[in-house]
Amino acid sequence: MSITAVRRPKYGDKHMDRAKLETELARDEGCIFEVYEDHLGYATCGVGHLIIEGDPEYGAPIGTKVTPERVNHYLSQDIDIAYKEVSETYSFFHDLDDVRQRVIVNMAFNLGSPRLALFKKFLAAVESKNFDEASLEMLDSKWATQVGDRAVRLSNMMRDGTV
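Above: the chain sequence. Below: its structure as tokens.
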């Protein structure tokens, strides 16, 4: 499976490696080229894209095929949304290195920005550049028990600044 972004915009003063983020999200979310029900029963496709009114697949039956082009479009669009939300909400975001920016965007992609905002101790630790504490706060959450290895991997990335 290969996920190739439709476009790779530059972000802020630092450049988040979007290709690496795409690969990480495809691994973490999975990539399914058809309409399926997510764990909550919502119609989804591609790399965890929640199908919404206005999407061509909206109302399509489970199992409807989705082209790689559509999957790439949704992935690019959903990354843009997550990036925009975190970069506009957290002023410290632009001061982070590429790896830690990808962790934050990955979490926003998975949780949504409103739920990410509930990680107050985590966000405060990241803002103060206490990455050991931020890493521990990530693991001390219901989210970590729900996503398992993903949380451990992202926590290690946050702590060490490496993959």
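The CA atoms of residues 143 and 151 lie 8 Å apart.
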